[in-house]
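U., I forgot to send this yesterday:
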Amino acid sequence: MNTVITGASSGIGRAMAKTFAREGHAVLAVARRGDRLAELAREVPHVHPLPLDITAPGAPQAVLMEAVERYGKVHILVNNAGMSPYQEFRELRIEHLRRILAVNAAALAELCHFFLPHMLAHGEPARIANVGSVGGYAPLPKFAMYSGSKHFVRVFTDILARECRKTNVRVCGVYPGGTLTEFPPLAGQRPRPISRAAMVTAEQFAEKVYPGILRGRRVIMPGFSNRLVALAGKVLPFPLAMRLTEFIYGIGVEQIPTAYPLNPNPSPGARTGSREGMRE
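Result:
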């Protein structure tokens, strides 16, 4: 099954690209950092790099056009790209605020908008997997924008899954919790030992969610502690859920300066969103 994965230059996205490719999928790996994608493609057969900022104008259409040109049909779309500094809302720079919305919500929705008609048209079994977070169920301290954007991902994914229930397309929500990737240090978090002990590697997470995506499960959330936090977010009154996650983060995470750039630029060789840019 031909697969497109965004945010594939590191962390969960990179691990998913490796997992899908190892299982025989042709993988179009999409991310801004072309040097990392090239390294991934050299390391793993069946992975084809597409250096691209998915928030650029025309980028979602460009991803679809590149995938169709290369494979003919796309069967699986994994919307994995995401970002957010770990800061109170009043401390966020406006550049970061705008990028959180663009990456976590707008680009994800646009990719679904362009890939879904293609999948419906070819009629073969297809999957859309949107990577959210347990923060889409439970409120997370110092993550007002991130948790808010992941609530959008969860509700959007659930409704889209309902709309597609009688079609060839199954829509999955994938909800990681604490994962040992570069996300925490970029966001401005240093997990303490008690927290690191409960975290999984990106490779472990990818292995766990892969079968669920193939089966088209609507909710994929590995880990008992993650499901417990999500349940608390659903059943507890908001003030209690907020106090619970504040306590968990208080004992498990040390805040450090965020490492996200204000104006991220694609690495050399990355393409623009336009079709003309893709042919450079």
